[in-house]
Write a structure and sequence with these properties.
Blueprint: H1 3-11, E1 15-18, H2 35-38, E2 45-49, H3 53-64, E3 68-73, E4 83-87, E5 90-94, H4 104-113, E6 129-132, E7 135-138, H5 143-148, H6 154-169, H7 177-180, H8 184-192, H9 194-209
Helix pairs in contact: 1-3, 8-9
Length: 220
């Protein structure tokens, strides 16, 4: 299943309004934690701001509970960071390329939307590649292969081995307020180096969250 298929299926039962970020909204936001309240008639209309996957899923849930849902989006299209692009006869998807079904709600959502048959499983979960110096490089499958391969430089491997001992010496393992607010990129860079961030953390965060590790707080 492509993430774009999920986006399109979530959008189908809702009404989306494209508007600029400067628009003033007089909206009534529903509390979905009380199912009885949803069906009591006290709340009939709800606006969801943002038509990314989270906003689409929220709108779908509210619509399924009988509410009149208006989805507000600053862009001209739904999907947030998830999109398909066409250039020179090639089609590629942008955004997160994986999702997990560990939660029962995800499985139920796929079934409710009728897109289970669109699900695409990896041909081989043991072989994943990242681009380095313009070429695809096989990602190590575990700690042993990480150290026995040439994926990381000797300097980065040594830093990984020394990190547990370095951590114990830093402020008696206390975390400062400044460190608590740092980004995912800064956190792993401080502990393991920029090479570790560029070729392990960055591809992982981009593939699972469609995000830049420099913009995500380590506390999130």
């Amino acid at each position: 299943m492509t993430m774009l298929s999920l986006t399109n299926s979530l959008l189908s039962p809702t009404h989306m309004v494209s508007c600029s970020s400067s628009t003033n909204y007089n909206t009534l936001m529903a509390n979905t934690s009380d199912p009885d309240k949803l069906h009591s008639g006290s709340i009939k209309r709800v606006a969801v701001i943002g038509a990314g996957v989270s906003g689409l899923a929220a709108a779908y849930k509210l619509k399924s509970n009988g509410l009149n849902v208006t989805l507000l989006e600053a862009d001209e299209r739904a999907g947030g960071k998830i999109r398909s692009a066409v250039k020179n006869g090639y089609i590629w998807d942008e955004g997160a390329n994986t999702m997990t079904e560990s939660e029962s709600e995800v499985t139920s959502l796929l079934d409710d939307l009728g897109i289970r048959d669109m699900q695409q499983l990896p041909l081989s979960q043991n072989k994943r590649y990242v681009v380095r110096d313009g070429l695809p490089v096989l990602l190590p499958s575990g700690p042993i292969s990480l150290f026995t391969s040439n994926f990381l430089s000797a300097k980065s491997k040594l830093r990984l081995l020394c990190e547990p001992f370095s951590w114990r010496r830093r402020h008696n393992a206390k975390v400062s307020d400044e460190e608590a607010e740092e980004s995912v990129s800064d956190f792993f860079g401080r502990h393991f180096g920029e090479e570790f961030v560029d070729y392990l953390i960055d591809p992982f965060v981009g593939g699972t969250s469609a995000a830049d590790p420099k913009t995500i707080s380590v506390c999130d």
